[in-house]
Protein: FAD-dependent oxidoreductase
Amino acid sequence: VDALGGEMAKNIDKTYIQMKMLNTGKGPAVRALRAQADKELYSKEMRKTVENQENLTLRQTMIDEILVENGKVVGVRTATHQE
Structure:
């Protein structure tokens, strides 16, 4: 959720249809804000954000395998055997 400096939250702010505060009858520790976004507009805004992000290459393909070394994800292997 915090990837790219919180862009998911920023895009919800741009594209929400409605927002509702949950658990208003309870204490502040359990209250939460729920937002419903315009699905198409959110997708367009997020794509624009990702496409304009520095040092990030956007690719669309099928992933066959997630590559893990020492318990950390280090890459992926695609259906065409690219890494």
Q: What stands out?
A: Residues 16 and 37 are 4 Å apart (CA to CA). Residues 3-78 form one domain.
